[in-house]
Known about the structure:
The complex is a heterodimer. By secondary structure, chain A is an all-beta fold.
Amino acid sequence: xxxxxxxxxxxxxxxxxxxxxxxxxxxxxxxxxxxxxxxxxxxxxxxxxxxxxxxxxxxxxxxxxxxxxxxxxxxxxxxxxxxxxxxxxxxxxxxxxxxxxxxxxxxxxxxxxx
Amino acid sequence: xxxxxxxxxxxxxxxxxxxxxxxxxxxxxxxxxxxxxxxxxxxxxxxxxxxxxxxxxxxxxxxxxxxxxxxxxxxxxxxxxxxxxxxxxxxxxxxxxxxxxxxxxxxxxxxxx
Lengths: 114, 113
């Protein structure tokens, strides 16, 4: 039973446009959400996070939105750049962001075309 | 640069054998977690160590075990390897607390034949 779901295995976007990656979760006890980015042959790299008490967090080109009633979060990348091409994982944490036991989705492969 | 290093990077083992994977945490971090990432899946939590003791475990059998050393380096041991154990094994280190970032190593690719 997958508690964190990323239903789009892949996404292709033109350079300069917006990339929107989606994530749904089932466990209402999750209180912290994170996005990780992974290049081939490297470990996941932390990108941005959001606490369940907020509905938006912004960091440069990256914004994460949280809709608790819908149990849905999304990552917006504006403008998208070719270097953003990677696999993006959504993850949830039960312990206030201590990040010791993260529940990951299956990932979405983003391709940004020049 | 994350500062978390894992060894070896690739490994091939035979079914039934035992394997030890190693992780060197980022300086100053006191917590290490291990994840298994099968092909096409997201990482799955195996267990976490804090101050040399297991501090949480995912849905993995006892043949998956670990150690954390006083210098905060860590080992993941898997006994009686099965074909389904073939995966990328990721180590993540962090400093216990709220909203602290976990840094991942590059992983060890284990193939069981």
